Every structure is written in structure tokens, then in C-alpha cells.
């Protein structure tokens, strides 16, 4: 049995005792870290959307790139802070929930598919719909796998090791 | 100016995702990520309404930046959704992983279309 399994939900997983308690331990600091991170991520996403606009019916490359790169980074981040490093309290809320959560977006993705369909570009819509899903999931998996390899955390069967043994290595 | 509205919206959207996610999880003793599912579907609906309203000039562009790109953009997330799907698969909950991917995309898309249709119905 793993003392503390890596979470399923990277934003907050109430199955992880430490995360269940974090709101009680300092609500203002926690929510501020998430808000500031969210602003940074969303402004980055908006900047890319402005720099690389797409005409109606064209493939929305900016959002595609944002969502796939954000997925790669969450894979790297979550392995680092749950399997490798006992991260300080606000690292996950700021970087994971805030920056990457604010950077990537599901609603823009869904609306862009609708807009492409409405513009009569059903093929671009379908390609964008499926392409983002496949590329994003591949990116998460790649980020996790490469980080485990780089930190020597690969074990047979693909099951991540417990982080119990590494507690205190860095702190 | 737009960038400030986006930032302001995100400053609300990101903590809102965290709080909604917690509240939803507290009501479901399940490994299925209902919290993220809920914010992604709700955000897609609202963004759909805003985009539909903007197309009919009923919703100003500044409101789309604040509530759409900023709030809904930060409320919803692909990184959390992607990580959860891969983690479910890795933990052996492969059916949940497939259902999460299919249901999130299906419901998010469905509500985005519904939101646009709703806006057209209300504002012509």
C-alpha cells in the first residue's frame, strides 16, 4: 500500500489528507496564489491567441498549442511535486491550479469547435476536436514518463513509486 | 485594456475552479473526476452563450474578454482534465479514463452548442 498515492485530480484531491486540510490552513494565501497564477496563465494564453489569430473555419493553432504545451507541463510538474520532491505548500496551487489551469482552457476549445462547424469547416472542426484530445493526452503521458525517466523513477508495470522514501531529500 | 479584463476574469475563474472542484468532490466518494467535469461543462455553456450573444452584438467584446476568455478560460482547464484521464488509466481505472475523455468532450461540446443556440434564441 502506498502511504500517499499521487492524486487523480491535480487541482485538489480530497483523497490526499494534506490537500484536504490546505483550505483550513490558510485560505487567503491559498486562493491568492491560485488567483495570481491564474492571471499569469490566462494572460499568456490571451497573448498567444492575439499573436496567432485564426480566421473563422481555420484550425485554431494558438489554443491547440496552449492546451498541448500546458498538458506536457502538468505531467512534468505533477511527477516532480508528488513523486520526486516534497514541494512547499503553495507550489501546486500556484503552478498547477493557477498558472497551468489558467493557461489551458476547455471552454475555448469547445466554443472553437462550434465556431468552426458554424463557419462550414466541419473537417477542421473534427480534426481540431480529435487532434487536441489525442495530442493533449499524449503530452501529459510524455511529460510524466520523461520526468520519471530523468529522475530515475521508472518502475516496471508503469505504476508510480511512493514518494514516502524521498521525503526530506530536498527540503 | 483587453488584457486587464482577461486577467481580472482569470483571478476569479481559477480560484472558483478550485472551490467548485472541492465542493463537488466533497459530495461524491468516487475516483471519477466529477469536479473538473462540472467546471468544464459549465464553463463551456457560459462561453457558448457569450460567443452567441457577441455574434448578435448583444454582448460587448469587453464582456467576452472578462467573462469568456478570462473567467471561463481559467475556470475550465485542459491540463487538469488531461492529467486526470492519464492518471485514471495508469491506476487501472481504464473504463473511467475512457468515459472521462468521451463524456468531457461530448458534454463540453454539447453545452457550447447549446449555449450559442440559447443566445441566438434570446437575442435573435
TrEMBL record, chain A:
It is found in: Cell membrane. PANTHER family: FLUORIDE EXPORT PROTEIN 1-RELATED. Keywords: Cell membrane, Ion channel, Ion transport, Membrane, Metal-binding, Sodium, Transmembrane, Transmembrane helix, Transport. It is a multi-pass membrane protein. The gene is fluC. It catalyses: fluoride(in) = fluoride(out). It comes from the Bacteria. Fluoride-specific ion channel. Important for reducing fluoride concentration in the cell, thus reducing its toxicity. The chain crosses the membrane at residues 28-47, 59-81, 93-111, 117-141. It comes from Micromonospora qiuiae. InterPro entries: FluC. This is Fluoride-specific ion channel FluC. Na(+) binds at residues 101, 104. Na(+) is not transported, but it plays an essential structural role and its presence is essential for fluoride channel function. Belongs to the fluoride channel Fluc/FEX (TC 1.A.43) family.
From TrEMBL, chain B:
It is found in: Cell membrane. It catalyses: fluoride(in) = fluoride(out). Na(+) binds at residues 73, 76. Keywords: Cell membrane, Ion channel, Ion transport, Membrane, Metal-binding, Sodium, Transmembrane, Transmembrane helix, Transport. Na(+) is not transported, but it plays an essential structural role and its presence is essential for fluoride channel function. Belongs to the fluoride channel Fluc/FEX (TC 1.A.43) family. Fluoride-specific ion channel. Important for reducing fluoride concentration in the cell, thus reducing its toxicity. This is Fluoride-specific ion channel FluC. It comes from Micromonospora qiuiae. The lineage of its organism: Bacteria, Bacillati, Actinomycetota, Actinomycetes, Micromonosporales. The gene is crcB2.
Amino acid at each position: 500500500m502506498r502511504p500517499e498515492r499521487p492524486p487523480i485530480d491535480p487541482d485538489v484531491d480530497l483523497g490526499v489528507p494534506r490537500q484536504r486540510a490546505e483550505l483550513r490552513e490558510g485560505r487567503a494565501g491559498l486562493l491568492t496564489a491560485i488567483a495570481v497564477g491564474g492571471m499569469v496563465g490566462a494572460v499568456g494564453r490571451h497573448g498567444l491567441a492575439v499573436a496567432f489569430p485564426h480566421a473563422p473555419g481555420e484550425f485554431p493553432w494558438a489554443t491547440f498549442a496552449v492546451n498541448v504545451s500546458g498538458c506536457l507541463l502538468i505531467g512534468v510538474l505533477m511527477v516532480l511535486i508528488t513523486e520526486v520532491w516534497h514541494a512547499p505548500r503553495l507550489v501546486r496551487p500556484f503552478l498547477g491550479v493557477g498558472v497551468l489551469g489558467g493557461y489551458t482552457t476547455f471552454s475555448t476549445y469547445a466554443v472553437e469547435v462550434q465556431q468552426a462547424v458554424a463557419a462550414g469547416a466541419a473537417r477542421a472542426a473534427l480534426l481540431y476536436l480529435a487532434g487536441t484530445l489525442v495530442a493533449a493526452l499524449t503530452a501529459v503521458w510524455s511529460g510524466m514518463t520523461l520526468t520519471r525517466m530523468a529522475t530515475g523513477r521508472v518502475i516496471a508495470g508503469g505504476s508510480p513509486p511512493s514518494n514516502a522514501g524521498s521525503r526530506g531529500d530536498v527540503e | 485594456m483587453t488584457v486587464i479584463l482577461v486577467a481580472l476574469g482569470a483571478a476569479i475563474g481559477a480560484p472558483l475552479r478550485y472551490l467548485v472542484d472541492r465542493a463537488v468532490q466533497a459530495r461524491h466518494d468516487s475516483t471519477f473526476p466529477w469536479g473538473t467535469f462540472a467546471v468544464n461543462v459549465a464553463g463551456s455553456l457560459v462561453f457558448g452563450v457569450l460567443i452567441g450573444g457577441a455574434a448578435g452584438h448583444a454582448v460587448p467584446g469587453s464582456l467576452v474578454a472578462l467573462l469568456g476568455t478570462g473567467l471561463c478560460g481559467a475556470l475550465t482547464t485542459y491540463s487538469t482534465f488531461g492529467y486526470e484521464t492519464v492518471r485514471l488509466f495508469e491506476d487501472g481505472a481504464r473504463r473511467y479514463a475512457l468515459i472521462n475523455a468521451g463524456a468531457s468532450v461530448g458534454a463540453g461540446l454539447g453545452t457550447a452548442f447549446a449555449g450559442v443556440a440559447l443566445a441566438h434564441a434570446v437575442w435573435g
